[in-house]
Amino acid sequence: MDVIDVEELERKRLNLQEQLNKLKTHEERNRLGQYATPTGLATDMLQYAKSLLPSGAPIRFLDPAFGSGAFFSALLRAFPLECINRVTGYEIDEVYIKQVIGLWQGFDLKLNHADFTRASPPESEHERATLLICNPPYVRHHYLSKEDKSRLQARVTRLVNIKLSGLSGLYGYFLCLAHQWMADNCLAGWLIPGEFLDVNYGQQIREYLLSHVTVLRIHRFDAKDLQFSDALISSAIVWFRKTLPSAQHEVEFTGGGTLLAPLVSRFVPLRSLKSNCKWSTYFRNYTKQRSLVSIDEVKSPILSNEYHSISTSREYILSDLFEIKRGVATGANKFFILTDEQVQAYGIAQKFLKPVLPGPRSLSVDEIKADAKGMPLLEKKYFLLSCNLTEEFIKKDDTSLWRYLQIGKECGVHNRYLCRHRTPWYGQEHRPPAPLLCTYMGRQSRERRSPFRFILNQSCATATNVYLLLYPRPWLQEMLHSRPELIRMIWRYLNAIPVPMLVDGGRTYGDGLHKLEPGELGRISVSSLVRELSVTCRRAWVAG
Ligand SMILES: C[S@@+](CC[C@H](N)C(=O)[O-])C[C@H]1O[C@@H](n2cnc3c(N)ncnc32)[C@H](O)[C@@H]1O
Predict the structure, then answer these.
(1) CA 29–ligand 1 middle distance (angstroms)
(2) Ligand 1 atom nearest residue 117's Cα
């Protein structure tokens, strides 16, 4: 074939698509789900597919709902012609077929005028597709007859042993039936309505995605960013391979922006997806950006008298309420953290010691009470050695501390990484006691479902970096000053956050260890807590 002008072809296709749209009433297009993919989106999808395929690999392409060929056109723009071995399309509408055939004359395209859901799949592996891209007809179940539903359900059950709900749109049947058309490891990209992520009748589609293929990525467009100028549906693109997933497999969830430049991204372990029937939470509870809400905006609805102005639609995240910091990294806990007995034995003066909490494993309670001096009421007392005086000064002024520091030097503590990089080597980071702490590393067990604990700290003890410390933002601090009991309400709320929300907000290691970094904890949604706080404050304000 002569050199082809792919851009010119796309222009012609768009003209043809426009004519086709004009030939049909809205009702007719609705019945066949005729909503063409915009050029930019089709281009992105084929570019993305290219990034997932080995370069130069021969392609057997299938579009089960061909329309005027938006994806075929994008395929020609994305891949060299010599890589495209075979192209197959299905289109039910005769009007389309008649018009479209002329456009693609001269191309080795097998465009079938047939109902894809009734077509017979290829029998041999080498005839099956290696790349399938589809924008299936968005035909809602109301438009499917009872007989059609029964036929489609039976066919899907025979093929993948899943019975799709009678409420499922035609796209669900397309997705499952295409299974037989894909060669092993075939890459598939499906542009479908985002509803399947959450709705009950999407359950079987999610089941198919979890058990029959390996989902690589799900991109959901912003609900306000409608991909089709002529249809009010929010869209998602599901990418998968026809191969079974490994137990450790993680699915990438991306949202907003474009397929090639999403605004948010996160990886979710497959096992979390299996236990969660609201997949849209994976787009909601995570944002790469800091909260778009400024602290003043959070403050105003709660503290001002304009309580009615609190936005019920706005998302608040934990870092809107707290500054979250990792606890003190001492560089050598064994040396810098002393028990009561060690303090006595070395004669270290109280002014160089700060009460510090034991690690989570030695902390059997979730609420730390304090004596009149603020000392934690715990079985064992621990102190953090903290001093910023120079060694010369200490040598002259405090022989006990001086001797203790010499012991540290003899053991090489001063040469340890953190100590070497700070002055003086025994100086500690400033971490005042925090009213709330979070144990950010842990495993789920029979006794404790959540790997994380939120600790209410009423003492003046600080904590090391086995905890995350939650410091109230100034506005919250101000509120707690006048309503100290609210900290308990916040603590209860945090401990009641559903486990999957916390686990999915963080990361999970192969051995089942869950971890939450400060930023990840800060991004946990706490909108209902903010509303609860505002209501509580409003009541107090009304009561005078
Ligand atoms: C959403 S459009 C997508 C068209 C094109 N692939 C694109 O992305 O622009 C779906 C197409 O599938 C066709 N269609 C509807 N039901 C079909 C069926 N049962 N079998 C094959 N094609 C069907 C419609 O006529 C329509 O052209």
Answers:
(1) 10
(2) 19
Residue 77 CA to ligand 1 center (angstroms) comes to 21
Ligand 1 neighbours (beta carbon < 6 A): 32-37, 63, 65-67, 70-71, 90-93, 96, 115-117, 135, 137
- Distance of CA 37 from the midpoint of ligand 1 (Å): 10
d(CA 197, CA 282): 10
At residue 506, what are phi and psi to the nearest 5 degrees?
Answer: -115, -145
The answer to whether the pTM exceeds 0.85 is: no
Nearest residue to 212 via CA among 186, 182, 245, 188: 245
pLDDT tens digits for the chain (544 residues)?
Answer: 556 789 899 999 999 999 999 998 888 888 899 999 999 999 999 999 998 988 888 999 999 999 999 999 999 999 999 999 999 999 999 999 999 999 999 899 999 999 999 999 999 999 999 999 999 998 989 899 999 999 999 999 999 999 999 999 999 999 999 999 999 999 999 999 988 998 899 999 999 999 999 999 999 987 655 555 554 457 899 999 999 998 888 899 988 878 888 777 788 899 889 988 889 888 864 443 323 333 333 444 444 333 333 344 457 889 989 999 999 999 999 999 999 999 999 999 999 999 999 999 999 899 999 999 999 999 999 999 999 999 999 999 999 999 999 999 999 999 999 999 899 999 999 999 999 999 998 887 776 678 899 999 999 999 999 999 999 988 788 888 888 999 999 999 999 888 888 887 787 776 678 889 898 899 888 888 887 787 776 655 444 4
Tokens of 417: 């990484």
- As a residue count, the chain comes to 544
Q: How far is the CA of 154 from the CAs of 147, 163, 209, 384, 438, in angstroms?
A: 11, 8, 19, 69, 51
Atom of ligand 1 nearest to the CA of 191: 8
Q: How far is the CA of 281 from the centre of ligand 1 (A)?
A: 30
How far, in whole angstroms, is CA 502 from its chain's centroid? 11
103, two tokens: 């456009």
**110 strand-pairing partners:** 88
Residue 67 Cα: closest atom of ligand 1 = 27
Maximal C-alpha separation, the chain: 99
CA-CA distance, 218 to 293, in Å (whole number)?
Answer: 26
**200: CA distance to ligand 1 center in Å?**
25
